[in-house]
Recover the amino acids of this structure.
């Protein structure tokens, strides 16, 4: 469920729109990290970080993504909570993009 709700949704929404993704992440003051073609780290709650990583699609390969949670997430959140959180964050990115337009 996490794959469809979060990983694929992130990849196919922003995997061919890295400039939009970068603009959104800079708007929310996310911290760039050195992964994939573009990646940012966002602090969701104090001490809880999420990294969103994108690889751009091309003629041979579709876009792909990964979402990594800091290792302390399972202490406070169930797996379903993490899927909901990823889903809400990706939905929020669309709202932030409207602010930039």
């Amino acid at each position: 469920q996490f794959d469809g709700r979060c990983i694929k949704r992130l990849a196919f929404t922003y995997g061919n729109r890295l400039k939009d993704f970068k603009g959104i992440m800079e708007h929310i003051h996310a911290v760039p990290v050195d992964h994939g073609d573009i990646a940012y780290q966002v602090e969701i709650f104090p001490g809880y970080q999420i990294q969103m990583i994108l690889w751009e699609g091309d003629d041979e390969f579709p876009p792909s993504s990964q979402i990594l949670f800091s290792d302390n997430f399972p202490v406070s959140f169930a797996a379903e909570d993490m899927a909901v959180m990823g889903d809400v964050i990706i939905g929020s990115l669309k709202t932030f993009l409207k602010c930039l337009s």
User: Anything to note?
Assistant: The chain has a mean pLDDT of 92.
